[in-house]
Amino acid sequence: MPRLELVETSLRQGQQALLVSRLRRRHAVAVAERLDRCGFAALDVFGGSTFEACVRFLGEDPFERLRAIRAAAPITPLAAVIAGQALVGHRHVADDVVDAFIAVAAEAGIDIFRCYDPLNDVRNLTRCAAAVAKAGKQAEGVIVYSDAPGNDLDRLVVLGRRMVDAGYPSLCLHDPLGVLVAARAGEAVSALKKTAKVPVAVSIAAQTGQATLASYRAASAGAHRVDVALSPLAGGASMPAAEAVIAGFGGTDVDPGLDLNPVADAALTLEQALVHYADVIDPLAMRLDTSALRGLLPPSAMGHALAELRERDAVGQLGEVEAEVARVRAEMGNPPLVTPITEIIATQAVYNVCDGDRYATISQEVKDYFLGLYGEPPDPVDAEVRRLVNGREEPITCRPADLLEPAMAAARRELTREGVDRPGADAVVTYVLFPGEYLALVRGESVAERLGDEMDEPMGDSGVELIESGAAGDESDAPSEPETAALPVRELTVEVDGQAYSVRVIGADLGTTTHTSAPTVSGPPAIREGTVVAPMQGLLLKVPVKVGDHVDLGDVVCVLEAMKMQNDITATRSGTVTHVYVQQGDVVSPRDPLIHVE
Fold first, then answer.
1. What residues are paired with 357 via a beta bridge?
2. Once rounded to an integer, what is the mean pLDDT over residues 246-254?
3. Given this model, what pLDDT does residue 514 score?
4. Pairing relation of β-strands 138-144 and 531-533?
5. Which secondary-structure segment (H or E) carries 531?
6. 565: domain CATH number?
């Protein structure tokens, strides 16, 4: 029997799961250099939310980071994980963007593209397979395992055959919650190998404590590869520890045959780097949690929904929300619980419980889901809930990306207008995926988060300086009084993705903003009948109404971004807008007045 191969995942999945994707390039490169000597079959180093975090939080170009890792690890194949037609975001993109992204990633060093669709809709994976083949790289079709009712082995093998027919010469069974127990893992791998007749790998989250045993049983049943992570970033929502698997499987018929010493050396390099991330490590994600084995969503997977409960002072309703998650999931056709579907379901469950009226508040993502814009769910959605969410608007039946126009040429023109001279394909695809963040990066306007061992940088032109919580300097580090005496200064503490920051705003208008479209208001406006209030804390993306406009009951009067979801805020009565208390870009708290309709 061939030796079992191990895929090491700490530089992507491990840090994404346990470090909220904050591992710096300098640390990743140092660890990659050590990992290249260990004999792993592949290193998972690119994709998922780590791409966005590079641009948004770390001030790093993700493709340049990938090239640096490739230079540090020239021998071991590098793997990327991409969410099918959504690539590294949460929304589908046009086919030409998929083609360009995969071509650039292949040029930058990726050898294996592991492609999954959150709904296991193979239509959303066909373009990826073709693009990977054109780039001359290996495509691996990822089946997201789900323990929802009706997900039997027959459905699994049909899905596997469809992926092979779509152009994937190997498969990976991925269990993001760790609910694939040993017996089931062996049965699933055996069935897939027998019917699909291609190599099958397994990737099982360690959170419930089942992963190592399930991986062993899967390997015994014929899985050729198993995902692991270096011990400092293993366990919890990450993968089983590489050192434990190498030692524990040693001397069996699935012995990986790797030397522990170089692996331990790489783990030590990573562990030494992690001393700088004490304020970043997610304790919920690191712990053993058997919630998923009991049919519940683990608190670590609740993410922003749990933060919203805290904001509403409603953590005591967590049990109700957990039950509502199961109910919403069934109404949405029992999709696998993987990003972004997990966040969409959990957030809607919070709305349903806290509002006291199911689907009174509906995020744009839920509306799009029921319209079929994410793809086809595994099971039919609840027809009554769909009618409640979308009214008479009928869902699409085609592949969602068929509705999208080519985007690369237009994005290249936009970048040129924005002052980026002759942008390459890597710049264009990054801009398409994260336009504002990429422009801030190339203009030098983004403010990267800093670790405790990183020196403070001068403030950008925005006048906003972020200092990581617990890493701020003493008073001697602050600007002297003469430098700022002429400018107003305000110090705030804000929270971004669960991370606390001190924010010093200098030279901005710190007084109360008076909107020309509304009468001047002294003090907080009174909430009365006809006043539309914010249902939660968030950022106002749009305020499409002004004083004097007529609105009907249910018309959208604001669009609020909260927990990475867009939420339409609608009028509670028909009438004329008499007050607009907010404007686009404002951050509002729960029950803040937005507009008033008489």
1. none
2. 95
3. 40
4. unpaired
5. strand 531-533
6. 2.40.50.100
Sequence-separated (6 or more) residues with CB below 8 Å from residue 127: 85, 95, 98, 99, 401
pLDDT at 537: 73
Sequence-separated contacts (24+) of 526-530 with Cβ below 8 Å: 526/593, 527/591, 527/593, 528/596, 529/573, 530/572, 530/573, 530/575, 530/596, 530/597, 530/598
Q: Omega of the bond prior to 482 within 30 degrees of 0, cis?
A: no
Element (H, E) at 568: strand 565-570
Find the mean pLDDT for residues 1-9: 89
* Across 122-126, 282-286, 467-471, least confident range: 467-471
What pLDDT shows up at residue 108? 97
Distance, CA of 94 to CA of 407 (rounded, Å): 6
Q: Tokens 């030098």 belong to which residue? A: 444
CA angle (434, 438, 441) in 5-degree steps: 150
pLDDT value at residue 41? 97
- Non-local (6+) Cβ contacts of 75 within 8 A are 36
For residue 282, give the nearest of 587, 563, 18 by alpha carbon. 18
pLDDT higher than threshold 70 for residue 53: yes
104 with 180, same domain?
yes
Would residue 78 count as lying in a domain?
yes
| 263 and 131, same domain (yes or no) | yes
- Residue identified by tokens 């608007």 is 393
Tens of pLDDT, residues 102-121: 999 999 999 999 999 999 99
Predicted pLDDT of residue 77: 98
Which single residue is written with the structure tokens 């839920």?
A: 366
Angle of helix 425-433 relative to helix 408-417, nearest 10 degrees, comes to 90
Q: Which domain covers residue 50, as residue numbers? A: 5-275
Is residue 37 in some structural domain?
A: yes
Residue 394, judged by CB atoms within 10 A of its CB (0-12, 13-18, 19+), counts as exposed
**Residue 16 placed within a domain:** yes
The answer to whether 400 touches 85, Cβ cutoff 8 Å, is yes
- Name the percent of the chain lying above pLDDT 90: 63
The two three-digit tokens of residue 582, written as one number: 């907010």
Cβ 174 vs Cβ 201: under 8 Å: no
Residue corresponding to tokens 């270096």:
230
What gap in Å lies between CA 397 and CA 409, rounded to an integer? 28
